[in-house]
Design goal:
By secondary structure, this protein is α/β, with parallel strands linked by helices. The chain contains 15 helices and eleven strands. It has helices at residues 25-33, 46-50, 54-58, 78-91, 105-108, 120-133, 153-162, 186-192, 210-220, 237-247, 256-274, 276-282, 287-290, 298-306, 310-323, and strands at 3-4, 7-8, 14-16, 38-40, 44-45, 69-74, 95-100, 138-143, 167-171, 201-204, 224-227. An eight-stranded parallel barrel has the order 3-4-6-7-8-9-10-11, surrounded by five helices. A two-stranded antiparallel ribbon has the order 1-2. The longest helix has 19 residues, at 256-274. The mean pLDDT is 95.
Length: 330
């Protein structure tokens, strides 16, 4: 049984990656219902939390059905991160996660996210201060390094374990790669299989099928897998991986009715949490994946993206259900 601190998370946990503008409560609800074991919030700016900025504070919303859940924070200033950790602890998640992996310019080039990979002593000091500050188990998500010439993930893992983190998630790319190219899991395996590493090591990057999940589990020996982009609009991937690992057989893909129903539910939760305008707008990124494989779906997708109200979206989803009811997906 894998544990993060004293929290049991399963024999081989599947984690939902923290994704900006994606891993919100409506999306997390769909993933939890479909097999995700541990979830993380979108990353939250420490400076926003301590200034009580609405957008940052709203991301603290967590619900009992999501547990165990981690709240992820990022920042470049140690004191701000310490104060933000206090706010997170009062919210009472199971886990506090630190983002040392975000590659986007506005974050990394200010010394936060993956930017701190260029200053490992500061990374270690910041992490130590947060671990001392809270009673929650602290975890970290990071990348292999800043670029191919500075891959120091083993040193990172040892430094962070030494100051008390309880698990480490590693994305198999450098900051310079962003999300391009193929994720390299070899350094992740080296960390996991190092006899000096005793905390759980979770691998992240390019897991988009049950077959690949099982292959990477066996090949690299990680304690669990974190799934990000492959879950967008397709929360069924978690149960599909679990079923394949348990039986060696693939689950049938979700039916038309299931896709329409989960998409509908996601929309309703999105509107409830964000309000009508924002809830409808932020659902747009999910439609392509919800209905991937539906031949001739593009006109429906265009209408869904252009829809201005929840009822309009619901009506179009109803049309999708009728249109494809007797058709074979390709």
């Amino acid at each position: 049984m894998v544990k993060i601190g004293n929290i049991e998370v399963g024999e081989f946990p599947l984690l939902l990656a923290p994704m900006e503008d994606v891993s919100d409560p409506p999306f997390r609800a769909a993933c939890k219902q479909n097999g995700a074991d541990v979830m993380y919030t979108e990353f939250i700016a420490a400076e926003g939390l301590i200034r009580d900025a609405h957008k940052s504070v709203q991301k603290l919303d967590i619900y009992d059905y999501e547990r165990p859940i981690g709240i992820q924070i990022f920042g470049a200033n140690i004191e701000s991160m310490r104060l933000a950790a206090d706010i997170v602890e009062r919210t009472q998640p199971e886990i506090l996660d630190i983002n040392y992996g975000c590659p986007v310019k506005k974050v990394a080039c200010k010394g936060a996210g993956a930017g701190i990979l260029q200053d490992l002593p500061k990374m270690q000091k910041m992490t130590e201060e947060i671990v001392k500050r809270v009673k929650l188990p602290v975890t970290v998500k990071t990348r292999l390094g800043w670029d191919d010439s500075s891959i120091k993930i083993m040193e990172v893992a040892k430094r962070l374990q030494d100051v008390g983190i309880k698990a480490l998630s590693i994305h198999g790319r450098t900051r310079k790669q962003m999300y391009k190219g193929e994720a390299n899991w070899e350094p992740i395996a080296e960390v996991k299989n190092n006899p000096d590493i005793h905390i759980p090591i979770f691998g992240n990057g390019d897991i988009d099928t049950p077959e690949k999940a099982l292959e990477y589990k066996n090949r690299y020996g990680v304690d669990g897998i974190m799934i990000g982009r492959a879950a967008i609009g397709y929360p069924w991937i978690f149960n599909e991986i679990k079923h394949y690992m348990a039986t060696g057989k693939k689950l049938a893909p979700p039916t038309l009715e299931q896709r329409v129903a989960v998409c509908h539910q996601h929309l309703v939760h999105s509107v409830e949490w964000k309000g009508e305008k924002q809830g409808v707008f932020e659902m747009r990124r999910h439609y392509t994946n919800y209905f991937r494989g539906f031949h001739g779906f593009k006109p429906f997708r265009t209408r869904l993206v252009e829809a201005g109200s929840p009822q309009e979206v619901i009506d179009i989803l109803g049309e999708v259900g009728v249109h494809y009811a007797n058709k074979v997906l390709v």
